[in-house]
Amino acid sequence: MSTATTPQPAGSTATVGSADTQAASLIVGFGLANEEYGVDILYTQEIIRIGHITELPGAPGFMRGLINLRGHVIPVIDLRARFGLPSAEPTDASRIIVLNVGQRTTGVIVDAVSHVLRVDQSQIRPAPRGVVGARDEFVSSIVRLEDRLLILLNIEGVVAFGPCLDS
Predict the structure, then answer these.
(1) Domain chopping of the chain, boundaries
(2) pTM of the full predicted structure?
(3) Residue 147 gets which letter from DSSP?
(4) Taking residues 90-114, what's their average pLDDT?
(5) Could you report the per-residue pLDDT of 32-58, keeping only the tens digit for each?
(6) What is d(CA 74, CA 165) in angstroms, rounded to the nearest whole number?
(7) Which residues, including other chains, have CB under 8 Å from residue 20's CB and lie 6 or more apart?
(8) DSSP of 64-133, one letter per residue?
(9) Angle at 94 between CA 91 and CA 95, to 5 degrees
């Protein structure tokens, strides 16, 4: 018997097609400081070019500011700053990934969006605790690809920074 369910965010799986098909998730892959990261596609609203960002006085250092996205004011997080990585000027490849997490819409700045991957559950492994360091709350799991690893983010932890600014 063939089943199909809607995928659930953050490391959940979807049953796709028939019983022959392994559970899979779709992941938006992106680069940041020469590493490859990913977020579950179900959190992704859209991917946009970096435009004007209005700075917020007194905001945390990782909070780049606010953007106006078709009439909605959205906070934007600089992932390099959030992860404690060296800063870099945006390039033509840099993007803002607009994410919906709970009742909050937030943008995150990445160096480049690379692809959307279909990842089988068998490729996903828990992140080794302690290896990730003080930022364990940012990493959900590790995805084993043929020739590399992809760090799957716990996007709830990444965007947690206080009261919702877009309500």
Answers:
(1) 24-159
(2) 0.79
(3) S
(4) 95
(5) 999 999 999 999 999 999 999 999 999
(6) 7
(7) none
(8) EEEEEETTEEEEEEEHHHHTTPPP----TT-EEEEEEETTEEEEEEESEEEEEEEEEGGGEEEPPTTTSG
(9) 150
**Amino acid at the residue 128:** P
Q: How far apart are CA 66 and CA 107, in angstroms?
A: 9
| Among the listed residues 128, 104, 99, 106, the one whose alpha carbon sits nearest the alpha carbon of residue 38 | 99
CATH value of 24-159 in 2.40.50.180, 3.30.565.10, 3.90.226.10, 3.60.15.10: 2.40.50.180
Q: Do residues 47 and 95 make contact, with C-beta atoms less than 8 angstroms apart? A: yes
Q: Which helix (H) or strand (E) holds 32?
A: strand 24-32
